[in-house]
TrEMBL record:
<protein>
    <submittedName>
        <fullName>DUF756 domain-containing protein</fullName>
    </submittedName>
</protein>
<dbReference type="Pfam" id="PF05506">
    <property type="entry name" value="PLipase_C_C"/>
</dbReference>
<feature type="domain" description="Bacterial phospholipase C C-terminal">
    <location>
        <begin position="111"/>
        <end position="172"/>
    </location>
</feature>
<dbReference type="InterPro" id="IPR008475">
    <property type="entry name" value="PLipase_C_C"/>
</dbReference>
<feature type="domain" description="Bacterial phospholipase C C-terminal">
    <location>
        <begin position="11"/>
        <end position="90"/>
    </location>
</feature>
Amino acid sequence: MPTQEPGRAKARPLPYQPVAWTEISGSTATIRYGNQGSVPMPFQTFAYHVNSIRQTVVPPGVTAEERFQISGSYDFAVHAPNGFLAEAAGSADTAALTATAAIGGTTSTPTFVVTVRNSGSSAVTVEVSGGSRATVDAGATHDFTAPLDDGWYDLTLTVSGNTNWRRHFAGHLENGSSSTTAQ
C-alpha cells in the first residue's frame, strides 16, 4: 500500500471557509452550517446512530441547517473540502451542554472559536485536547480558541467524568495567502 511522503508541501489559498456544529433540543439534533468562503460549499453529514447520510450545499456567505430525530445517544460527523471535520456525540444526560463554532479574527489572521454553553444546573469541566481544561458554571459560557499550525486546527472537547459528550473540530482557516499542508 502506498504511504504518504513525510513533511509538508506548499498549499495554494483556497476559496473555502466552512464552519459547522450540532445543537440538541429534546429529540431533535440540528446541524448548523456556515460558508464564509467565496464558492458554494458541499457538506456531507453522517448520522452514524441512524445510518443516514445527507448532502447539503451552502452558497457563499449563507448559513443552513439540517434536522435529525434522535432518541438516546447520537453520533454525527460533518465533512467538507480541505480536511474539514466537525464531530458531535452525546446522549440525553448531556443535552444541557452546547458547543457552537465560529470563525473570528480578521481576514488576514482568522481564528476558530468554540463557545460552550452550560444551560444545566451544575458546573461541568470541559477537557481540551492537549491537556488543558476549564470549568463552565451553570448558566455560563466559555470560549475555546483553537491553536493554529499554519492555519490548520484540530480541537477536541470532552466532559470530565462523562464519556458520552464529545465535540471535535478540524480543518484549515484560509487567509488568502499560500500555506502548507497539514502534517
